[in-house]
Write a structure and sequence with these properties.
Layout (H helix, E strand, L loop, with lengths): L3 E5 L2 E2 L8 E2 L2 E4 L2 E5 L1 H9 L3 E5 L3 E5 L1 E3 L12 H6 L3 H17 L2 E6 L7 H9 L7 E4 L3 E3 L14 E3 L2 E3 L2 H15 L4 E4 L1 E2 L10 E2 L3 H13 L4 E6 L1 H10 L3 E6 L3 H10 L3 E2 L3 H13 L3 H23 L23 H10 L3 H8 L3 H5 L16 E5 L15 E6 L2 E2 L25 H4 L5
Parallel strand pairs: 1-6, 2-7, 8-9, 9-10, 11-13, 14-17, 17-18, 18-19
Antiparallel strand pairs: 1-4, 2-3, 4-5, 7-20, 12-13, 15-16, 20-21, 21-22
The protein binds zinc ion (ZN).
Zinc ion (ZN) binds next to loops.
Amino acid sequence: MSNLILIENGSVIDGTGRAPFAASVLVHGDVIVAVGPQANERAAQAADVTHVDATGMTVMPGLIDAHCHLSFDDAESNPEIFHQRRNALSALVASYNAKKLLRAGVTGILDPDSVHENTVDLRDAIEAGVVDGPRIACGCYALITGVGGTGGRLIADEGVTGYYKVVQGKDQIVAEVRRQIKVGADWIKVHVSGVVPRYAYRGEQCSWMQEELDLICQVAHDMGVPVMGHCRGAEPIYRAAKAGMDLIVHGTDMDERGMELLLDRKIPVCPAFTFQANMVDFGHRLGTDPGLLKLFERQIINSAESMRKLHAAGVPLLTGSEAGFSIVPYGLWHYREMEVFTRYYGMTNLQAIQCATQHGAIALKMEGKVGTISAGMKADILCIDGDPSTQIEVLGEPDRLKHVFLGGRAIDLSPLPERKPISGWKYPTIGRRLSREVMQGRAS
Ligand SMILES: [Zn+2]
């Protein structure tokens, strides 16, 4: 391919929420240099142009998944992530999975935390061209207090468990945030809320004092590094926002106080409801407890009003798949949060696409550089057979994805070689309890 690529005859969804329009897109090197008639004129004057015919296709920015755990490898349980993921091997496996993302049109992700914090290394390897994968912004270990995150007693009282690190007291907080910045964190990730098994009926609770969260933000911001908080519950959201966090993840059960701060400071929110939405729609096929299905659906519905309000007021909502768990396998569900946004939050398809592209750039810390189809932007471009502005689900159909460009480079979309099982990687399960009803075939 020459240095100039003209993508012509397509319908452009530029990622800003604007309606689709017929236009050519001219790429030079790794950037888009012209859109519309100018693109054709400049291409006509050039000697060596590669033409990509996008007749019948939509030309749009690559998807940005603002919540994707590349090192978890479709885990089926917390113990698997905490204890089965070897460092080098999980990084190698993550690099395989990263290619699945590219083949699903995902050209950028925010990986908030990883086992052995090895997404940092994968990111650097991708940036150096050692392996192929999307643009990555990442955190190191998720910070938690001694109370833990969402793994209860599975998490050790101190040190690292899986992708978590316990920090106790001011000195450890300061030292760990600085260490993470040194090793290359793009974001500091804080598990602001967690479940205490004994008090699980209260839901997730805030496990940090306000001063501690303030301190994290102060140390990180001093070094120009943003902070993101996993927050479920009114108090965690409020305290995280008050501390000055730059991104709220989940954001369920928000109250007026939290809402006011988010509106006031325009703090982006990444609900990452694909996990729950998949449970709700497909859990019955996976043997998920019916009570759990109701709980998950309620989580989505209960937060719909606050998400609508935030969106209406111009607070960016980001799309996150929570890929890394078996219910949201890599490469399959990255588009789905857009479906959630349209179905539950009343967004138009174009608004949802804007969340997954232009707003997604916030997660990559590349606002104004990536996420829209316009001159001067990085050439992260998809060509889709179909019109996502009327049918968002076409973005989840692999056969419709005809071209992916990452920084102007055409991605090989041929299927990956099949993976075989890795010894000691998954927890083998014995299966469910063999009751008399099951034995006699009377239990469903
Ligand atoms: Zn997550």
